[in-house]
């Protein structure tokens, strides 16, 4: 990686729209947390160290890693700490608008509800000290101090529904998002292991009823388990005016991909494993795509960068935005993603700058924020030239 080019990518203002909180935790923080739990005998530090240091991991392995990260991070004070650090790391990268997504977690054993998890996130945001953060859609709430001349950054939140969750848990997340709109929650993300959970609701129990004497015996005929679906929660969120982004096509489930496009989310993430028909559908629907290059390569979702679908979408002028996905897990940064796009696809500085600026069109915020961001880019272009 050319150092000078990377520095240029850092200096460009950027918009980050696909970043998972727990995937963006610094390795140094994970090690520190692992050491504490190791000393308490909750985990074996060296096992954790090996897992964290592993470079390439399949998509399946990544989800095992997240389970481990959640053991390390999920108590209120740690959630606050990682939120502060992650936002400050993005600010240091010159990210001027960040949509940070996280899965609100309930853990009765430590008195954590989805709401208290999010309160801990908000506390982390308010603790950010390296930049002024605007996190309220009405522009009323900032952590600005009087007379501050610090850089300003917009932060908005997306609440993630994990595909493992029940319909009820997904609905609770949507209700929480509605409750927290004034605190900068703008939408819902569907994420998690793509082979878990179903898009459609269906009745998989094939059962036989034997009515005899005074009782009814129900036999589970084929042993197919009922799985709840997240669709009712997503529909409800959309009806209530929340923005929706879906992880779509991380695995080649064409039926689900088709249904997701028909749902017409405001954006989708990844779009890796589309067949020709769904690819055509996506392009004609013009749904913006959050592209995560390093993540796709590291998880082997895309076998090599030169066949990445970025090129096709870019040439077709399809709305797209470069993102990190999990900057901690994949040891990347948004500047590195821009640098990678530039070196892999031969984009010059003008194209890179335009790519960064055009992302403003796809943010889940109002026109006032968009106008302010456009002004920031206008100023930046003068300095960079
Ligand atoms: C799907 C992903 C993901 O929510 O605990 N997540 N879901 N595909 C991916 N591509 C690699 N990367 C991260 O952050 C971690 C959670 O984000 C989702 C997973 O559900 C993971 O557990 P939070 O802050």
Q: Give the ordered list of helices and strands.
A: HEHHHHEHEEHEEEHEHEHEHHEHHH
Distance between the termini: 22 Å
What ligand molecules are bound, each kind once? N6-methyladenosine-5'-monophosphate
What percentage of residues falls in helices of 4 or more residues?
40-55%
Strand content: 15-25%
Number of helices in the DSSP assignment = 15
Number of strands: 11
* Cα Rg: 22 Å
- Mean pLDDT, to the nearest integer, reads 90
Biggest β-sheet, characterized?
9 strands, parallel
Shape: globular
> Low-confidence parts lasting 5 or more residues at pLDDT below 50?
203-226
Helix/strand class: alpha/beta
Compact overview of the structure:
The protein has 385 residues and is α/β, with parallel strands linked by helices. The protein contains 15 helices and eleven strands.
């Amino acid at each position: 990686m050319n150092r000078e080019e990377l520095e240029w990518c850092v200096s460009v203002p950027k918009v980050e729209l696909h970043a998972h909180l727990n995937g963006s935790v610094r390795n140094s923080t994970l090690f520190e947390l692992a050491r504490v739990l190791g000393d308490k005998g909750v985990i074996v530090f060296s096992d954790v160290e090996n897992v964290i240091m592993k470079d390439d991991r399949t998509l399946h392995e990544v989800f095992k890693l997240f389970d481990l990260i959640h053991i390390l991070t999920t108590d209120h004070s740690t959630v606050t700490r990682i939120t502060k650090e992650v936002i400050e790391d993005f600010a240091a990268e010159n990210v001027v608008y960040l949509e940070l997504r996280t899965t609100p977690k309930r853990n009765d054993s430590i008195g954590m509800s989805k709401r208290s998890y999010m309160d801990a996130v908000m506390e982390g945001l308010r603790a950010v000290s390296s930049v002024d953060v605007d996190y309220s859609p009405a522009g009323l709430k900032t952590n600005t101090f009087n007379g501050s001349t610090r850089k300003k950054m917009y932060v908005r939140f997306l609440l993630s529904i994990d595909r493992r969750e029940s319909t009820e848990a997904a609905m609770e997340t949507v209700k929480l998002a509605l409750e927290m709109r004034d605190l900068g929650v703008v939408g819902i993300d569907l994420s998690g292991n793509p082979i878990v959970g179903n898009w459609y609701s269906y009745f998989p129990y094939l059962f036989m009823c034997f009515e005899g004497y005074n009782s009814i015996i129900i036999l589970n005929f084929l042993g197919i388990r009922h799985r709840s679906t997240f669709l009712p929660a997503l529909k409800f969120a959309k009806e209530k005016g929340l923005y929706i982004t879906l992880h779509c096509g991380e695995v080649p489930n064409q039926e689900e991909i088709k249904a997701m496009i028909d749902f017409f989310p405001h954006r989708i993430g990844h779009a890796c494993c589309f067949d020709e028909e769904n690819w055509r559908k996506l392009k004609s629907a013009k749904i913006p795509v959050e592209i995560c290059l390093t993540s796709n390569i590291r998880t082997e979702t895309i076998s090599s960068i030169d066949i990445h679908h970025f090129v096709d979408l870019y040439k077709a002028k399809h709305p797209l935005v470069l993102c990190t996905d999990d900057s901690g897990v994949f040891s990347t940064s948004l500047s590195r993603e821009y640098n990678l796009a530039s070196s892999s696809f031969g984009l010059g500085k003008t194209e890179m700058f335009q790519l960064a600026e055009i992302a403003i069109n796809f943010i889940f915020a109002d026109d006032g924020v968009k106008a302010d961001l456009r002004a920031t880019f206008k100023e930046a272009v003068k300095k960079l030239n």
